[in-house]
Design a protein that fits this description.
This protein has helices at 13-24, 40-45, 47-65, 81-105, 159-162, 179-190, 210-222, 278-281, 317-331, 360-366, 381-385, 414-426, 431-435, 446-454; strands at residues 3-9, 29-33, 109-112, 115-119, 122-125, 128-137, 141-143, 156-157, 171-175, 194-198, 226-228, 231-239, 242-249, 255-260, 262-265, 269-271, 304-306, 345-347, 352-357, 370-376, 392-398, 404-411. The protein is α/β, with parallel strands linked by helices. The N and C termini lie far apart (67 Å). A hairpin with a 5-residue loop joins strand 13 (242-249) and strand 14. Helix content is 32%, strand content 25%. Strands 1, 2, 3, 4, 5, 6 and 17 form a 7-stranded mixed beta sheet that branches. The protein is globular, with a radius of gyration of 23 Å. The chain binds flavin-adenine dinucleotide and 1,4-dihydronicotinamide adenine dinucleotide. Flavin-adenine dinucleotide binds next to helix 1, strand 2, helix 2, helix 3 and helix 9. 1,4-dihydronicotinamide adenine dinucleotide is lined by residues 146, 175-181, 183, 198-201, 206, 232-233, 266-269, 314-316, 346-348.
């Protein structure tokens, strides 16, 4: 048994970042993790492995579709699935080992095993109970289940199984046109699978800018993904190495069936709090199973905090990280803060999709007067040279003050470009501030400047 200033439960992006910041602030800290390796969902079965497969499959797509036009001729590469899986696994290993190194460097104790909180101020791991002045729950999330759909992680899989398939399926049905469905659907479509996405709503990626949704779906269709929209999945039927997906079209209540070698269920994630003992502690939970916290990330039980996917807000690694840093600062008596108005979201398909701040739809609903500056990547010299002219940058600014309220990008390197706008928003910049900033030529970021110019007197190259 040991005594700590802080014990963090969970070593995902929320937990491990919080642990490092606590140590930097001079606190004695331990982190409990039940997995074999550190890094949580993100490093083990989320962000990192999915991005490795997106990268590898994108390279294949480039070789198949764009190499010949650039004068690069020869046989296209073929897929060595075993090697691709081992590349993905190496990538995971490098990242999880990296966190282990950072824990050692910062003198953070890794308490191996599943933790519970028998009472405030105590954390039990295995047979040992440790004292903690503060406990921070960062236990993350798990895939949400769907009635009538039984996951076996072989034929009917969540994202975890989809990152571990034995081979590239011939036919894949994806339930849910959200972030996971479209990222992993893209991977398998590029690798040769026939991918059909079944979505309950009539739009992909709910909550995103409407124009981006339409362009995104159109682009993915061009890449071979099929979409069945407005469809409610009723059940799946597993037949050893195949499955059937039964769905109803909402517009006319008609019944349909799809055959698949693999079904990916990607209809959202839910907080993971099993085994922590929160009910006995009297920790207040929301109706959606999230731990409720105040603006200091403290629960209703003094000394117990919660961060990341297990609380409200977007289920994103960088949101969890920011909360991890801020909660550490709160515990250390400082003033940790997260600006929830400036949290970017990125979908790592090709083209990438990125957004931050308000959408036109949300501003209309709020009755907030705004203006829009838009610029197509077709007018960007670098994008044209790189076969990346599909997509646009859209900046939304306050109609009267010109202050930037949000931005939506679909196009090359959107996930990097968005950060220029995040920084501008953090500094309360106007669209004119961005437009008057010199941008190097030829770069994709010139499209951001042009969109900012479009909020004023107009873009130059359109
Ligand atoms: P988690 O990363 O879920 O970590 C929680 C950890 O706590 C787990 O390791 C778990 O084992 C451990 N734990 C739980 N309970 C206990 C206990 N009682 N005792 C000990 N240990 C415990 N987000 C992005 O921002 N970008 C992306 O590109 C992205 N891609 C994703 C791709 C996929 C396929 C998935 C599934 C998710 C993706 N996400 C992405 C979301 C991202 O992974 C999560 O938002 C992020 O991991 C949340 O971090 P967290 O620290 O709250 O929890
Ligand atoms: P999601 O919430 O993004 O999308 C779920 C989709 O499933 C929605 O479009 C929803 O309308 C649809 N759906 C729900 N029930 C359905 C039904 N019965 N039949 C058909 N469709 C149905 O959830 P997803 O994709 O599972 O991702 C979970 C979380 O992981 C997200 O919150 C996301 O933030 C995070 N994530 C982030 C990534 C990134 O940042 N690049 C990548 C992958 C995941």
């Amino acid at each position: 048994m040991a005594s700590y200033d802080v014990i963090i439960i969970g070593s995902g992006p929320g937990g491990y970042v919080c642990a490092i910041r606590c140590a930097q602030l001079g606190l004695k800290v331990a982190c409990v993790e039940g997995r074999e390796t550190l890094g949580g969902t993100c490093l083990n079965v989320g962000c990192i492995p999915s991005k490795a497969l997106l990268h590898a499959s994108h390279m294949l797509h480039e070789a198949e579709h764009n190499f010949a036009a650039m004068g690069l001729k020869g046989k296209s590469p073929s897929v060595d699935w075993k090697q691709m899986m081992s590349y993905k696994q190496d990538t995971i290993g490098q990242n999880t080992k990296g966190i282990e190194f950072l824990f050692k460097k910062n003198k953070i104790d890794w308490l191996k095993g599943w933790g519970s909180i028998p009472q405030a101020g105590k954390v039990k791991v295995g047979d040992e109970t440790h004292d903690a002045k503060n406990i921070i729950i960062a236990s993350g999330s798990e895939p949400a289940s769907l009635p009538g759909v039984e996951v076996d992680e072989k034929v009917v899989v969540t994202s975890t199984g989809a990152l571990e398939l034995g081979k590239v399926p011939k036919k894949m049905v994806v339930i849910g046109a959200g972030v996971i469905g479209l990222e992993l659907g893209s991977v398998y479509a590029r690798l040769g699978a026939e991918v059909t996405v079944v979505e309950f709503l009539n739009v992909v990626t709910p909550g995103m800018d409407g124009e981006v949704q339409k362009t995104f779906q159109r682009t993915l269709k061009k890449q071979g993904l099929k979409f069945i929209m407005g469809a409610a999945v009723q059940k799946t039927e597993s037949l050893k190495t195949k499955a059937k997906v039964h769905y109803k079209l909402r517009k006319d209540d008609s019944d349909h069936v799809l055959d698949a070698d693999v079904v990916l269920v990607a209809t959202g994630r839910k907080p993971f709090t099993e085994g922590l003992g929160l009910e006995a502690l009297g920790v207040t939970m929301s109706k959606r199973g999230q731990i409720e916290v105040n603006d200091k990330w403290e629960t209703n039980v003094p000394g117990i905090y919660a961060i990341g996917d297990v609380i409200d807000g977007p289920m994103l690694a960088h949101k969890a990280e920011d909360e991890g840093m801020a909660a550490a600062e709160q515990v250390a008596g400082k003033h940790g803060h997260v600006n929830y108005g400036v949290i970017p979201g990125v979908i790592y398909t090709h083209p990438e999709v990125a957004n931050v701040g308000a959408t036109e739809e949300s501003l209309k609903e709020a009755g907030h007067a705004y203006k829009v500056g838009k610029f197509s990547f077709m007018g960007n010299g670098r994008a044209k040279a790189n076969f990346a002219g599909d997509g646009f940058v859209k900046i939304i600014a306050d109609k009267d003050t010109d202050r930037i309220l949000g931005a939506h990008i679909i196009g090359p390197a959107a996930g990097d470009l968005i950060h220029e706008i995040c920084v501008a928003m953090e500094f309360g910049a106007s669209a004119e501030d961005l437009a008057m900033t010199c941008h190097a030529h030829p770069t994709y970021s010139e499209a951001v400047r042009e969109a900012a110019l479009a909020c004023g007197d107009g873009p130059i190259h359109m």
